[in-house]
Amino acid sequence: MAVKSLLLMALAGLVLAGRVFAQPAGRGVISGTVVDSASGDPVRKAIVTVTWQGTPRSWATAATDGSGNFRFEGLPAGKYDLRARKAGVGEAAYGAKSARELGELITLGGGETLSGLELRILHSASISGRVFDPEGDPVVGANVALLRPGRSLGARILANYIQTSTDDRGEYRFAGIDPGEYYARAMPVRPGQSRVEEGTREIATGVFYGGARQSKDASPLTIRGGENLAGIDFRLIAEQTAQVHGHISGAPAVAKNNEEDRLYQAPQNFIQVQVMSLEEDLPAENFGTTIQASDSSFSLPDIPAGRYRVRAVMQTANKAFGAAQVLDLHPGENEIELTLTPAIEIKGQVRFEGPTAPPAARMRVALTQPGVRGENVSAALGSDGRFTLAQVFPGEWEIDVNGMPRGTFLKSARLGDKDILFSPFEIESGDAPINIVASTNTAAIEGQVDAGAADRARAGIVLAPSGKLHDFARFYYSVAAGDDGKFQLNGIAPGKYTIFALEKMAPAGFRNPEAADQLAPLGQEIELTEGKTIEVHPKLIPQERAREAIP
């Protein structure tokens, strides 16, 4: 099936690429067939992508016909990456025998025709099973999720990968799953209201695969390419509920509304109470109520036992008051005391260093509370980099700048004279300003893989940070080296790193502290300084050894 020339397709891709591709026109042809790796049958309607490795890179796409055939014409001489994808089935990279491999580059001479190339679709994995309630009956509409280990500001988290709901037989199925390590979790439709039996204070709560309440007690699922795991079943747990009774002090005096105005009561006459789940790796289930400021007492019945953050907020005409407490709620009665304190305002500025200053208007300074999901205070930057964080309550926080473009890194952050970059800190008052320095004075590396006796130097290059930044995903970088082993990485935050060259392996799966630790003795330590480019020649790590570092 013929497609438009690469040049025309590149121009059509202007919306995606943001620039016009400028590779020369050519007369080369690449054609072949996409087949199923298991059966050998042709795969129709697979999307095939050919990527020219020149400068700048450009690509074209085509769909296979009823016989699985594809064809690209008008190609200039050079090296090409060729791959295919069929939604819900899997992916293929030319020359790759597994989803973890880079594949091989194709060399096309001027006016040359390369025909009969075969792309073998490697099947994605699938998982299926059922969800049962504590009595053994199927649960309709239960939420089932696959979670992958990740990092947030250096802390290990489980990030949602994919989720679905059970059908009317309590069954679920995931398809198109990439190889890797996962945790599977099932939750009832509404955790706080899923009663095991009417009239009792016992509810059904979520579980990880194997019956554990939290992931630290659960066993991960290691998924391999093309694997079909059936019978991954869950049985929800029956638990006694917690009842919360609280008292709030410190509320400012406010004028009471007249009886005639009761339908238009001002919000400052109320205190909002929220109870937010802090259970590790579980959805942030919230429970709450609103009470009159003059009442000062509240009750919340039938909450699943666990770790929570209880927060009370009162907004007057010109001031916010709040209180928060993290506690473990046990089955039965739980009494708590909260004392409201006034919110504070914190001013600061982000200053930029480097040859170019990124657009400040696209960035926001954000405060988040460690271990508290979904809770943050943020502010946009003015044209001069100044910002004001309003209604910040005293306590422990972490700071970050969102929306920074690639090639910009945080160099320092201070609250008064206190270093607050990438570490929790206490906010007690709004007297001290926050001063942040961001820089575009990034570093770069270029080099060639030392392949030794290997016949090719094709490798995935991974740059892993050392020291206190080792656990921060944002400071991991990767690129694929060519067949000649040459590579280049730009926009790197200065610091100490270890560089790895992984034979024929796609580098994305190695950009994490766990893989870096496994490979540490085989890497090369380097140090990058602002605005400098260094040349490196990392030794090729054999494919078999690289595979040992990832699930």
| Overall pLDDT | 87
Shape: globular
Number of beta strands = 43
Poorly predicted spans = 1-22, 259-267
Please report the distance between the alpha carbons of the first and last residues. Answer: 39 Å
Indicate the radius of gyration in whole angstroms: 28 Å
Strand percentage = over 45%
Q: Give the helix tally.
A: 4
Question: What profile does the largest beta sheet have?
Answer: 8 strands, mixed
Helix content: under 10%
- The computed structural class is mainly beta
Describe this structure in words.
The chain has 551 residues and is mainly beta. Helix content is 4%, strand content 50%. The protein has 4 helices and 43 strands. The strands form 9 sheets. Strands 1, 2, 3, 4, 5, 6, 7 and 8 form an 8-stranded mixed beta sheet that branches. Strands 10, 11, 13, 15 and 16 form a 5-stranded antiparallel beta sheet that branches. A hairpin with a 2-residue loop joins strand 10 and strand 11.
Protein traits:
551 residues; mainly beta; eight-stranded mixed sheet; five-stranded antiparallel sheet; 43 strands; globular
Summarize the structure.
Helices cover 4% and strands 50% of the residues.
How is the secondary structure organized here?
Layout: H1 6-12, H2 14-17, E1 28-36, E2 47-52, E3 58-63, E4 69-75, E5 78-86, E6 90-93, E7 106-108, E8 113-123, E9 125-132, E10 143-152, E11 155-165, E12 171-177, E13 180-187, E14 202-205, E15 207-208, E16 221-223, E17 228-229, E18 234-235, E19 237-249, E20 270-277, E21 286-292, E22 297-304, E23 306-315, E24 320-329, E25 332-339, E26 341-342, E27 344-353, E28 364-368, E29 376-380, E30 386-392, E31 395-402, E32 409-415, E33 418-419, E34 425-427, E35 434-439, E36 443-448, E37 459-465, E38 477-480, E39 486-492, E40 495-503, H3 513-519, E41 524-528, E42 533-536, E43 540-541, H4 543-547
Parallel strand pairs: 1-8, 9-17, 9-18, 19-25, 27-35, 36-42, 40-43
Antiparallel strand pairs: 1-4, 2-3, 2-5, 5-6, 5-7, 6-8, 9-12, 10-11, 10-13, 13-15, 13-16, 14-19, 19-22, 20-21, 20-23, 23-24, 24-26, 27-30, 28-29, 28-31, 31-34, 32-33, 32-35, 36-39, 37-38, 37-40, 40-41
